[in-house]
Amino acid sequence: MAHSKEEKLKAFGEVLDVLDTLREKCPWDRKQTNQSLRPNTIEEVYELCDALAAEDNDNICKELGDVLLHVAFYSKIGEENNVFDFADVCNRLTKKLIFRHPHIYGDVKADTSDQVLQNWEKIKQKEKDGNKSVLGGVPSALPAIIKASRIQEKAANVGFDWQKREDVWNKVKEEVNEVEAELKIEDNVSNKDAIEAEFGDLLFSLINAARLYGVDPENALERTNRKFIKRFNHVESRLKEENKTFDKVTLEEMDKLWEEAKGL
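Below the sequence we write its predicted structure tokens.
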């Protein structure tokens, strides 16, 4: 059931009121700082991502609340330090959204999502507090796959991209060949660094290919992770039913159960 704007504002006001009370009276809440909350924030975001991946609406709602609490909590700490409060956070966000959507609030034309992204990169460079370089806004702490995706998107948005997406496969094949060449060297220990570098280039090119074909590589890999876990759990469960353990069965027996799992 959708709530009215007044009901939404009232509900969030109650969150702020409860947080004020907890910050004043609860020993745990009172001692929290930006740095002490940071690990919990990361955990909450990952829990939200789990719920989103599972399309579990009940848990999505719950985890969004947990993430919202952290936004409010950091704002409360900012208010206590006289640097900003929740209103400042909201005002800054609203101003940025309007500024970055001139195709809605101004006279810029953008009919496609790609055009919007290209405009965003140009706008970010003009912002007073914008990044000094095209890739400057990519957080260094991002997981490598997401980081590679963001780097490639930003480069593409300023025109540094393949003219035809099909051409990316030549690059992928080139990187596969370079990995294989390094692996053929007999002394793999001494060229371990080179092997790692070539694997990195190969993964980067595959992530680029996914982007060009409209596939989110993080979601794609997580989908395969979940599929593998489901099938492997089936193999393990079937072995337990037969009172067997992994060290007592052959690879052929496990493959048979794996194929069985694929058919479920």
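The two ends are 36 Å apart (CA to CA).
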